[in-house]
Amino acid sequence: MINLPATGNSILNKFISQLRDINIQNDSMRFRRNLERIGEIFAYEISKTLLYEKKMVKTPLGELEMLLPISNIIVASILRAGLPLHNGLLGFFDDAENAFISAFRKYHKDGSFDIQFGYLSSPNTANKTLIISDPMLASGSSMVLAYKSMLEKGTPLHTHIVSIIASREGIEYLKKSIPEKNYTLWVGAVDDELTAKAYIVPGLGDAGDLAFGPKE
To answer: Which residues have CB under 8 Å from 10's CB, separation 6+?
Structure first.
């Protein structure tokens, strides 16, 4: 299942447009904050899909039965661009467990590259709701690698994959590489073009560099 919360009139469109806007995105603090805001919006949308249970809440003047979420959640992010998005998700799922995945592009002299896995820090994922976030879903290779790495920690009850901008090619690669139906893809916008170096067009550039500064 693919969900696009920004379809139609939504404040999410404003935040995505500011991420893309070359005249605004050089303000790294605003860029990070917009990633966080979008994470909060996705968290709210995901919250509608969780398991709930009636619980009694005592107020100063009485008691009230309310439906409250009972899902055990793990918020996982691909370093480093995923950190602000992670913080946004965690701002709503404040009692969630956390996982971090290091995956990077290793470029070769001919301009090609491989996605290499560097590090995984994660609790047991068995029978929990897993949320994996990365601002950009370009070729899809990093996300597939992250997802399969997380499965080594146990089989989640359900997985939510969150990306702000995805390429159509990346979405198709995800469908092909993760044939299981036990996941939901949340995307803010889908762009048509992917360059030979796996950059999304029009995209927004390098999310990690815009959030934290250029790297060598």
So the answer is: none
pLDDT in tens, 37-51: 999 999 999 999 999
Helices 82-92 and 28-47 pack at an angle, to 10 degrees, of 40
Q: Mark out the alpha helices in 1-151 (DSSP H runs).
A: 11-20, 28-47, 82-92, 141-151
pLDDT, tens digit (0-9, with 9 covering 90-100), for 115-143: 666 788 999 999 999 999 999 999 998 89
pTM, whole model, 2 decimals? 0.90
**What domains are there in the chain, each with its CATH number?**
2-212 (3.40.50.2020)
**Measured distance CA(9)–CA(5) in Å, rounded:** 9
Element at 212 (helix H, strand E) = helix 207-212
How many angstroms separate the first and last alpha carbons of the chain?
37
114 pLDDT higher than 70: no
Rounded Cα distance, 93 and 70, in Å: 11
Q: Tell me how many degrees the CA angle 186-99-197 measures, rounded to the nearest 5.
A: 60
